[in-house]
């Protein structure tokens, strides 16, 4: 027979456990002893935390809990938050930066990459009419919408991807400005040359 409190073996006629001193119920003394299928392991009432949830008794034991032992339910953290379509952790939405430079500078490409098709279509077809409103809106809501729409393995990976988009956007923007002023200067020089 086993103690329902500590799981140690006690004599079948004992009224108290010789290990922990707990009282042995009459029902337990009348019940056939429960033993493990291998190694003679016994079950205790102390839950052991494992990857799959709380387990009872010795590790590797195949025995069942004794009468009167009930498993405890583990409530997961943030269980009250709605899951995101991307599968990313919804609790991290509040940690995301408020502004996304990649979404602002390269709106249609950035939105398509992050599966934000509505923003991509609006910015591609109507961006010329609504610029810079669409870009500003994308910059403001970009981080949260991207976290909801596209899966990332970690928060750090998300930050790294957004950093690369920011660098790409800055390179394209600076390059475009330099090209524009270069063409402008060439046109001005060509005009000055032809007037002479």
What does this structure look like?
There is one protein chain. By secondary structure, the chain is mainly alpha-helical. Helices cover 45% and strands 4% of the residues. It contains six helices and two strands. The chain has helices spanning 26-30, 101-105, 107-113, 117-130, 133-149, 155-195; strands at residues 47-50, 53-56. The protein has a two-stranded antiparallel ribbon. The longest helix is centred in the C-terminal third of the chain and has 41 residues, at 155-195. It is rod-shaped and about 120 Å long.
Compile the SSE list and pairings.
Elements: H1 26-30, E1 47-50, E2 53-56, H2 101-105, H3 107-113, H4 117-130, H5 133-149, H6 155-195
Antiparallel strand pairs: 1-2
Helix pairs in contact: 3-4, 4-5
Which keywords apply here?
6 helices, two-stranded antiparallel ribbon, 45% helix, single chain, mainly alpha
Oligomer: single chain
Question: What's the number of helices?
Answer: 6
- Residues in helix, %: 40-55%
Low-confidence blocks of residues: 32-78
Helix-strand string: HEEHHHHH
The beta-strand count equals 2
Distance between the first and last residues' Cα = 113 Å
In spatial order, strands of the major sheet run 1-2
Q: Describe the sheet with the most strands.
A: 2 strands, antiparallel
Gyration radius over CA: 33 Å
Globally, the shape reads: rod-shaped
User: How much strand?
Assistant: under 5%
Rounded average pLDDT: 77
Protein structure class:
mainly alpha
């Amino acid at each position: 027979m086993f103690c329902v409190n500590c799981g140690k073996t006690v004599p079948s006629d004992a009224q108290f456990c010789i290990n922990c001193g707990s009282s042995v119920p009459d029902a337990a003394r009348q019940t056939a002893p429960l033993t493990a299928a291998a190694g003679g392991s016994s079950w205790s009432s102390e839950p052991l935390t494992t990857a799959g949830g709380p387990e009872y008794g010795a590790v590797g034991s195949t025995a069942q809990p004794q009468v009167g032992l009930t498993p405890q339910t583990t409530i997961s953290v943030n269980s009250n938050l709605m899951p995101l379509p991307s599968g990313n952790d919804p609790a991290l939405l509040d940690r995301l930066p408020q502004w996304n430079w990649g979404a602002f500078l390269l709106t249609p490409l950035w939105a398509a990459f992050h599966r934000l098709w509505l923003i991509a279509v609006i910015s591609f077809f109507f961006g010329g009419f609504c610029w810079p409103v669409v870009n500003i809106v994308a910059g403001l809501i970009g981080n949260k919408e991207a976290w909801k729409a596209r899966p990332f393995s970690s928060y750090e990976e998300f930050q790294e991807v957004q950093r690369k988009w920011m660098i790409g956007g800055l390179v394209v923007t600076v390059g475009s400005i330099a090209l524009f002023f270069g063409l402008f200067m060439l046109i001005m020089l060509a005009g000055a040359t032809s007037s002479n």
